[in-house]
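PROTEIN SPECIFICATION:
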Amino acid sequence: MRLFFSTLFLSMIFLFANAQERSVKVDFESESFFNNPKIPFDKPFAISGEAGSEIEFVKVNISYQGKDFVLHSFAWNRCEDNKSETFNIVVPPILKSNTKYDFNVVIYKLLSQTQKEYLHKNIEDRVRFLLMNNIYFDGKKVTVNKPKDVYQKLSQLITESFTLYESKNGIPMQAPSALVLDELKKTSDFRFGNFFKKKSQKEIDTIARKSISDKVEHLVRLISSEITPYINSQLVQHHRQANITAVETDKEAFTLPVNIGVYAWNKTVNINNTSMQNIDFTPGIGLTIPFNNKSKLTSKMRMFDSFGFSTGVLFKSVYDERGTEFVTPGVNLPVYAGLGFRLFKVIRFNAGVLVIGEKGSQNYRNISVIPTAGLALELNLWMGIK
């Protein structure tokens, strides 16, 4: 009986341990995960670390090793009644196996009202300086140096000014708005007309400077009103970060994508100086060698992924309008090769060519290449390859 309960107790411990979520802990001093663990790709895992009572927000950015764009971002946002000094962020099973990732872990502190006021004033001063260098009097009118370019510069300035800040409330930054661009265009169209008649050059310069100053202040107030909701939120500022590089995910058994589907083709033949076409669909089977897809473009694509090179055979020969049978010499079935991508994780679209010659002919000079495209069901199969 004692042996039975001991075995049951150990089994429960084993099951409980396996049910636990895997976790890694951040060491901010060495900028690493403690004990340099591997991380899972097929199940969620937690990222934890120390966060003193003054830390209000933690953000984790995940990138491919050595890449400068963010694949995934996750955040920990302290609740008012949370007095703990640790943070915990759960990453869902979205990573790839046999892959290395970089982790940027950033912790933030809450800004005081005084700090917010200083930040607000600093941005107003920078906006004012930018506008004063791009609005001028050309002798007839007050004009803006390319309103769209100035608007882009303002947008970049504001984005860069808030790079190290986050809103705990999730308030988005919505400045500069389209209204600012409209005001820049209106300012560029402002003309003095006959207003300067019988005025000295000194008076003209004084009036023009006053007009420019008024226009700049009007735009500064407009932009200031647009950034106010963001600054008035629970704004937090970058305090410390850890850049943890080259973290490996778990490995999985080697597989090759096998796809079975239908391929379209068009075989033409000249009969009495007339081009005759025979369009048909033939089932086929093949393998895909995936590319190493770590570009920014593929990381943003949710509907299709896994670009790769595919090759295989059709189950039946290709025929032209005369009924002549075509296959790939040496195989006795048409061989295709092409490039494609996967849709919804299970469907592969390929576009490529068939390499064929007349069946029974040993003259490889008469081999022809015709285009093909197909849709196939794709399954990852273990091929017994190490």
